[in-house]
Give the backbone structure.
Amino acid sequence: MDALAFEHHLTSPQGKRHVPRDAFTVTSGGGSCCDEITFSVKVDGATVTDAGFDAHGCGSAHAAGSGAVTLVRGAPILRAARIGTTEIADELGGLSPGKLHAAELAADALARALGRAVRARGAVPAPPGASRTLVAMSGGVDSAVAAHLCTVDGPTLAVTLELWADRENDAERSCCSATAVAQARALAHQLGLPHFTIDLREEFRAGVVQPFIDGYAAGETPNPCVGCNGHVRLDAMLELADRLGCAALATGHYARTAEPGDPRGPLLRAAADAAKDQTYMLAALRPASLARLRFPLGELRKSEVRALAARAGLPVASKADSQDLCFLAGTDRARFLARHGGIGDRPGEIVTTDGTVLGEHLGQHRFTVGQRRGLGGIQVQPPEPMYVLDKDAATGRVTVGRKAQLATTRVNVHSARLHRSGARVDSVKLRYRSRPLRASVAGDPAAGRHRELSLQLDEPVDGAAPGQLACLMDGDLVVGWGTIARPRRC
């Protein structure tokens, strides 16, 4: 450790309490160590023209803020986006393990401030004749390998979205936490990539979490990941790609595309690894967005991805996958709805289709159509196992019955979108991990938006949960989608 370098930044801090005009400012820290760094950056086109900081806590935090200012002032945006914990620690002459947290804090504050600035005012066009790719990194093995493969093909930049912050979250199992962002940034820098951190928590709350809460309050079983990919997350990253002069956005999803030459836009195609296929969760993507997306893992199996990560020396080669509902990591649905949506215990009746009351429950939001487990509120036990047939948010009633009563060959969907003629639909997926069921769309509707569509299944399905996505398919191609509606009651 170079004590003189550290002492210089501690006694003659650069940019301390300086907030440039028109700067973007964020604060990081304030956790268990109590250190906090507020960082400001100003960008003009492709350059960071000024920066400043303030810090509260130990001397190392003050020195780290000064070091970050020194490194970023006057730097091209793409160089500034390569500044992380290691670079800040080196600027201070090296830091002992006990003080390294200060460089990590400064790196996080810098990255988040830079992300805000670039998203609002940055403009980093690609050099003439060059083509850049922006890759979405979550801190997991899939996105890390996607980034690694992109670097082989050409200039690559990386972005990570911070979507949710909750003290009850299990940060290691969530792909959207501050911990995941830090891990993704470290991976990107290990690969030599400029990395941008985008705080999308407000948009995520409004566009994903609130509809999730509203859906359960209305008696549905919503699928927030579909909306997150289709309307919030990928749109924000495509906008950033434009700012950074990137023609394409690559992700670590297991998916492929097809029919790229069609003037209506390409279609999603199921991944080569059927067990990992994620086209269901991407089905709501607009064709114009899909045309700019790249899926480097689409032809690979998960075992091949982990092997590639190991050969590339990526530390996440054996890291466990994050869970799908990232904001529920570490908690359960009922507790989440109570804390964030005010949907607490609302007792109601458990009834049969003829109105016979079998018992009571703590809230209709705890149930999903087709559910068998968790019906402990039944006090009068029927001779056969009971399944949830329907639930009514207005009355609080949950209707149960025999499994045979779930069976239906007709499913209605609302708010539907067909990318091709409905005549092409030959199957439908009604849940993420379910197999496609042979089906057709009544009336062979034309491509476009439809308020409602009716699906006829070749074989009965044991319940279709209102609120879930119906993924309309032609073989292994996604040709449309809609939201499953409650069945009409006579």
About this structure: The chain is about 30% helix and 25% strand.
